């Protein structure tokens, strides 16, 4: 259990760093995710084939995994879109609402009873986001896009938990990212038509940051997160990801000085979200010691 928590928190820290990279890379969100998927999936195929970790799967499983991969791809597109429309801090705070969406979706997908404590904690997170939304009107578009991202982000770990019972992490992640890449590739011409970008090919700086995003913040971070998911519930994984805003926002303050542009309402809402996180940690500790 302790190893799973350590893996999870390291994955969360790397996830928080992706927000910094999302602003640092100047490509638009669709193209950024397309390159991320391409580099990540190609790396996984090369690495895991050499390690002989890719297992054969049925056509039906391949179809399911491809759908989950596309869901993950759209989660990223909307996440980086929220950064473009608002900033790193707002996008990361919106990601905290995965706990609320997980509390709703996990009982439906996994066919278990609704946990009232999980739902209540998720509602308080949504209240914190509402406070920011209500009083920081300049970020409303970014917040809406960020909430869509959080909703999508809550679903694919739940679906992964089902598949991980019979498919290893390496196979699942490789096919998911490949499926997301292929579907996004088919949609990219239409996307770029409505959301044009001045440059299709990344310059050398963007290329280097894309490699960091793909190799460290995707390949390695996903393996850590998926491994932790074997021991922990999807809700625990998603709610622990509320630390992602904490790590990412601190980095955004240091690197981009975003604290100069955020109102007091942002800090009030974010403080409520942090309070929810600490309450959840206390509840988890009580469960562990029972």
Short description:
The protein has one domain. The chain is built from 12 helices and no strands.
Task: Please outline the major beta sheet.
Answer: none
Structural class: mainly alpha
Number of H/I helices = 12
Total DSSP E strands = 0
Mean pLDDT: 87
- The helix content is over 70%
Overall description:
It contains twelve helices and no strands. It is mainly alpha-helical. It has one domain (2-288). α5 packs antiparallel against α6 (116-135). The chain is globular, with a radius of gyration of 18 Å. 49% of the residues are buried. The model has no long low-confidence stretch (mean pLDDT 87).
Which descriptors apply to this entry?
single chain, 290 residues, mainly alpha, globular
Topology:
Elements: H1 2-24, H2 29-50, H3 59-85, H4 88-95, H5 98-110, H6 116-135, H7 140-163, H8 169-194, H9 204-229, H10 234-240, H11 243-256, H12 264-288
């Amino acid at each position: 259990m302790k190893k799973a928590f350590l893996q999870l928190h390291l994955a969360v820290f790397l996830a928080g760093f992706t927000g910094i990279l999302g602003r640092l890379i100047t490509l638009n969100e669709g193209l950024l995710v397309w390159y991320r998927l391409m580099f990540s999936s190609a790396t996984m195929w090369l690495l895991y084939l050499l390690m002989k970790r890719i297992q054969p799967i049925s056509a039906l499983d391949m179809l399911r995994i491809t759908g989950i991969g596309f869901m993950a791809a759209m989660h990223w597109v909307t996440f980086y879109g929220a950064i473009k429309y608002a900033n790193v801090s707002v996008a990361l705070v919106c990601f905290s609402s995965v706990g609320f969406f997980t509390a709703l979706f996990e009982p439906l997908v996994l066919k278990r009873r609704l946990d009232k404590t999980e739902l209540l904690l998720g509602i308080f997170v949504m209240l914190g986001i509402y406070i920011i939304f209500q009083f920081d009107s300049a970020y409303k578009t970014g917040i809406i896009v960020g909430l869509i991202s959080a909703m999508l982000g809550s679903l694919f770990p739940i679906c992964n938990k089902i598949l991980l019972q019979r498919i290893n992490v390496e196979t699942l992640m490789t096919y998911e990212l490949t499926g997301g890449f292929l579907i996004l590739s088919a949609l990219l011409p239409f996307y770029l038509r409505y959301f044009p970008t001045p440059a299709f090919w990344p310059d050398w700086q963007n290329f280097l940051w894309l490699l960091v995003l793909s190799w460290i913040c995707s390949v390695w971070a996903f393996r850590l997160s998926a491994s932790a998911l074997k021991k922990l519930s999807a809700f625990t994984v998603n709610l622990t990801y509320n630390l992602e805003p904490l790590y990412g926002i601190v980095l955004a303050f240091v690197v981009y000085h975003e604290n100069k542009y955020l109102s007091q309402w942002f800090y009030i809402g974010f403080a409520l979200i942090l309070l929810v996180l600490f309450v959840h940690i206390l509840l988890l500790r009580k469960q562990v010691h029972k």
